[in-house]
Design goal:
This protein is α+β, with helices and mostly antiparallel strands. It is built from three helices and eight strands; from the N terminus they run ββαββααββββ. Strands 1-8-3-5-6 form a five-stranded antiparallel beta sheet, with helices on one face. Strands 2-7-4 form a three-stranded antiparallel beta sheet, covered by helices on one side.
Length: about 150
């Protein structure tokens, strides 16, 4: 069974933003000989996340509001006491809220591939969540099957 490793690179915007990466994943799959199998999609960052859900503008706004309620940026977090932490880079942001939001979501998804296509439902898309932008981000995709 072949295993093919690929990457998706994204440049994100300020704050929370949600990207539909389904077309990029589909393009990666179509560039391989895999027709039936699976793709593991993995976010390589601690302040990003992945989910399968509907990519609809009003729902995306609802999701952002929901995440901001779970971990408000204005709350007090020990992780943000930068002066008490060791070996941090000079551009380290105060981003504890972003880490906490990421913990409430997934950092990976496994999606079946059937006849060379993602086996997603009608309204399902693979969503990448930037919780601490703007940044350059990388999503790892491991495609396997026959």
């Amino acid at each position: 069974m072949p295993i093919i490793n690929k990457f998706i690179e994204l440049e994100t915007n300020q704050g929370i933003n949600i990207h539909n990466i389904t077309p990029q994943i589909e393009a990666l799959i179509s560039s391989t000989p895999i027709h039936n199998g699976q793709v593991i999609v993995f976010s390589r960052h601690t302040t990003t996340a992945l989910a399968i859900n509907e990519y609809e503008e009003r729902l995306l706004t609802d999701i952002k509001v929901f995440l901001e309620k779970i971990a408000p940026e204005s709350d007090r977090y020990l992780h943000n006491d930068l002066h008490l932490r060791k070996n941090i880079p000079p551009d380290e942001p105060m981003n504890a809220h972003s880490h906490l939001m990421a913990m409430m979501l997934n950092n990976s998804e496994i999606i079946p591939i059937v006849d060379g296509k993602l086996a997603l439902g009608t309204y399902q898309s693979v969503l990448f969540f930037e919780l601490d932008g703007p940044r350059k981000r990388t999503v790892f995709c491991q495609i396997s099957g026959e």
